[in-house]
């Protein structure tokens, strides 16, 4: 009974209602052992974010969707918006001096009984500890979230219970980041010049544990210049207007709620080049709990208003109260989790599902025109949209959250004019989409030292058209297809038809001077993945034209029918690319053939050829030349499932957990075990596709959502439930389990019309 009373008291002190204990697979926690290995997570609602930090009170970097910096001679990069999370605390003067908690070293001595919890189900971060400041102890609890229900809003609440009588200080700040230095002209530097510049600034392209990526020297954040910033000590508010470097405008505001019935003293507005804050003193009594809440509103051009509008939003939220905003936020996330993947029998795999889905949902927006960067709302890969958005993340969301998948394909329709201009500049027809696209305007943003990828890694165009078609197949939204999808598909088909060259001697079409998906082969003829993808895009265009009442160009079908696909008759398998391409020792790239079974492409072939292709994909691993990380494991596992090799499919899935790709304490995925390129939502999408389409055996076809391949269930798993699948106006649960004889089976249950 005492423990129950303690729990109820803790909930009362937290200022939140008592709820049923959450499923443990949604709970990720940090303790004192994580102080030295803390890899930050982030809180976000797809529109704006904040990075997490151990105390829960720090001023942290924050970002906003497609809010880009366009510095001279640089590539576009995400502009860090003013940090909004900081609430600093001081226990007052002591014989040793005056200390602010956020500057005190992080140790188990100063921060006792430490616990930080990321609740994936409700997207909240809760941090609690007993803070010691030279003999004065304060029990602290901080709760923070970025609202999924009211997307312009966020809130952070701190509860202080001092173990002394006296006067404490609090500071509620917006952090006005200094312009980042050094800025490198990546739009003009060659690879050698870039490395020289990095070295000249005494930096290195190496990862620094626990969380600094190896390319931090070039993947830094962009700048937001604060134009107007002010506060009101009577209303307890802060507000500012800003603008990204040569980019869009933005705004932020904060409204502070004091403990009920408590009057603060010496409230002061602090303004400097780097900080806008409300500072106050408060007389406290031993054992009494004091609750402070910081309500924040944010906006940018094209999404919301100015500082005055944000100020009104923040003050309205303060009037409504923290609990109301939190309850609405929780309800919105509960709705999102109605579509889920539930695994019985493997807690580690289940937690990975929930963390991967959390990061995808926290990073995506519904029914907008914004894509997703490979590293979410972070500076990784400078926030650009790659094929990752169309081929890795989009398919993972399509059946679970089609309204979010829709934003990713609508981005390509929105930026079609920019792609058309690129094609025209190169003497090509249709649209040539960038390898690295600006998420706001779709312009090419590949750094100069990697420009060859922008010119030759052209499979991205087919990836885009295939995603458009997959959205149509999954929704049968004819209005969307005609207005958005079809113009993209048509222009991509025109691109391929004009990019292919006719080989008179061989009497076939070819694609030459291409960068393979294995990028160390950056100038090859007839990369197999590129050619089969282009062929599918052309075939899609023929079918889509008829659906919208247009006439297909006969040349599309001609090129598709005669486009060369490298194949070994002797081995009865596909080749990586044209057999004329030399393959240096140790550079076997057979893993690329695994992509031929990737769900949205899934090249038609005989079962024997599929088995031979898969066998070839494993050679590089067996010979020790290559081990897939991040992006590699999912295609290999899906290919293994397609050929019925359950053991290998499961082994590839398990490599997610044995290769240090998932960083503690919050399951942040990195691109590789060592490069620390974090929030790699590309790999999150791959893992979820592995389960939906690989183990689930599903494919999205013109005939419907088909059971294209037998389902796979690891031996220790009792079942896997694809919960709340959305397809053509219906909702399904698909359960994969074993029958009475132990045979793996897949069963569907139609839930209700959408």
Give an account of the 3D structure.
It is a single chain. The chain is α+β, with helices and mostly antiparallel strands and 754 residues long. The protein folds into two domains: 2-180 and 220-335, Beta-galactosidase, Chain A, domain 5; 340-753, Glycosyltransferase. It has 18 helices and 29 strands. It has a nine-stranded antiparallel beta sheet. The longest helix has 22 residues, at 478-499. The chain is globular. It starts with a helix and ends with a strand.
Record keyword descriptors for this entry.
754 residues, alpha+beta, Beta-galactosidase, Chain A, domain 5, Glycosyltransferase, nine-stranded antiparallel sheet, 18 helices, disordered N terminus
Largest sheet: 9 strands, antiparallel
Mean pLDDT: 94
Write down the Rg: 27 Å
Helix content: 25-40%
Distance between the termini: 45 Å
The percentage of residues in β strands lies in 15-25%
The number of domains is 2
CATH class label of the largest domain: Mainly Alpha
């Amino acid at each position: 009974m005492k423990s129950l009373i303690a729990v109820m008291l803790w909930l009362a002190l937290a200022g939140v209602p008592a709820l049923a204990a959450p499923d443990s697979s949604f709970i990720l926690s940090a303790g004192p052992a994580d102080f030295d290995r803390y890899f930050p997570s982030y809180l976000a609602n797809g529109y704006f974010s904040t990075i997490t930090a151990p105390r829960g009170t720090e001023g942290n970097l924050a970002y906003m969707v497609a809010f880009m910096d366009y510095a001279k001679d640089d590539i576009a990069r995400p502009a860090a918006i003013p940090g909004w999370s900081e609430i600093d605390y001081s226990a007052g003067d002591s014989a040793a001096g005056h200390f602010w908690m956020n500057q005190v070293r992080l140790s188990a001595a100063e921060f006792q009984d430490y616990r930080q919890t990321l609740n994936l189900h409700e997207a909240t971060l809760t941090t609690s500890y007993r803070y010691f400041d030279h003999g004065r102890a304060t029990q602290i609890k901080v709760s923070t979230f970025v609202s999924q229900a009211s997307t312009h809003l966020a809130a952070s609440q701190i509860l202080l219970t001092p173990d002394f009588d006296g006067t404490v200080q609090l500071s509620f700040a917006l952090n006005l980041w200094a312009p980042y230095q050094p800025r490198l002209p990546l739009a003009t530097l060659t690879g050698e010049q870039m490395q020289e510049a990095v070295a000249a600034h005494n930096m290195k392209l190496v990862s620094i544990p626990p969380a600094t990526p190896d390319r931090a020297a070039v993947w830094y954040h962009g700048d937001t210049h604060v134009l107007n910033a002010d506060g009101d000590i009577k209303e307890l508010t802060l507000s500012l207007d800003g603008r990204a470097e040569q980019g869009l405008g933005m705004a932020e505001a904060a409204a502070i709620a004091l403990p009920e019935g408590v009057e603060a003293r010496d409230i002061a507005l602090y303004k400097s080049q780097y900080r806008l804050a409300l500072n106050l003193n408060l007389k406290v009594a031993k054992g009494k709990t004091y609750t402070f809440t910081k309500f924040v509103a944010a906006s940018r051009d094209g999404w919301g208003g100015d500082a005055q509008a944000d100020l009104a939003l923040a003050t309205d939220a303060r009037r409504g109260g923290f609990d109301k905003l939190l309850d609405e936020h929780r309800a919105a996330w509960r709705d999102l989790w109605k579509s889920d993947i539930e695994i019985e029998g493997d807690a580690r795999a289940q937690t990975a599902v929930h963390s991967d889905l959390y990061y995808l949902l926290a990073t995506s927006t519904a029914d907008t025109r914004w894509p997703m960067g490979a590293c979410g709302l972070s500076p990784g890969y400078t926030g650009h949209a790659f094929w990752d958005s169309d081929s890795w993340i989009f398919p993972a969301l399509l059946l679970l959250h089609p309204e979010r998948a829709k934003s990713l394909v609508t981005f390509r329709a929105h930026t079609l004019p920019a792609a058309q201009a690129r094609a025209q500049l190169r003497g090509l027809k249709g649209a040539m989409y960038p390898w690295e696209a600006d998420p706001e305007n779709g312009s090419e943003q590949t750094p100069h030292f990697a420009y060859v990828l922008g010119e030759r890694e052209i499979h991205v165009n087919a990836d885009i058209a295939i995603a458009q078609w997959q959205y149509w197949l999954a929704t049968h939204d004819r209005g969307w297809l005609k207005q958005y999808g079809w113009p993209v598909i048509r222009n991509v088909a025109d691109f391929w038809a004009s990019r292919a060259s006719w080989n008179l001697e061989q009497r076939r079409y070819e694609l030459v001077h291409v960068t393979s998906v294995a990028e160390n082969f950056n100038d090859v003829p007839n990369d197999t993945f590129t050619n089969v993808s282009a062929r599918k895009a052309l075939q899609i265009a023929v079918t889509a034209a008829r659906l919208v009442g247009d006439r297909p160009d006969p040349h599309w079908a001609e090129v598709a029918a005669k486009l060369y696909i490298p194949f070994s008759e002797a081995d009865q398998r596909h080749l990586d690319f044209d057999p004329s391409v030399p393959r240096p020792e140790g550079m076997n790239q057979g893993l690329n053939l695994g992509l031929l079974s990737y769900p949205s492409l899934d090249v038609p072939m005989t079962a024997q050829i599929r088995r031979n292709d898969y066998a070839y994909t494993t050679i590089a691993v067996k010979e020790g030349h290559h081990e897939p990380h991040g992006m590699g494991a999912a295609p290999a596992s899906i290919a293994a499932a397609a050929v019925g090799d359950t053991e290998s499919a499961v082994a590839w899935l398990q490599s997610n957990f044995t290769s240090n790709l998932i960083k503690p304490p919050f399951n942040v995925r990195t691109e590789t075990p060592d490069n620390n390129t974090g929030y790699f939502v590309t790999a999150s999408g791959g893992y979820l596709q592995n389960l939906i389409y690989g183990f689930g055996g599903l494919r999205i076809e013109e005939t419907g959502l088909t059971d294209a391949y037998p389902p796979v269930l690891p031996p220790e798993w009792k079942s896997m439930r694809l919960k709340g699948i959305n397809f053509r106006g219906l909702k399904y649960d698909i359960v994969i389990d074993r029958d009475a004889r132990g045979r793996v089976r897949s069963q569907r249950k139609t839930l209700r019309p959408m």
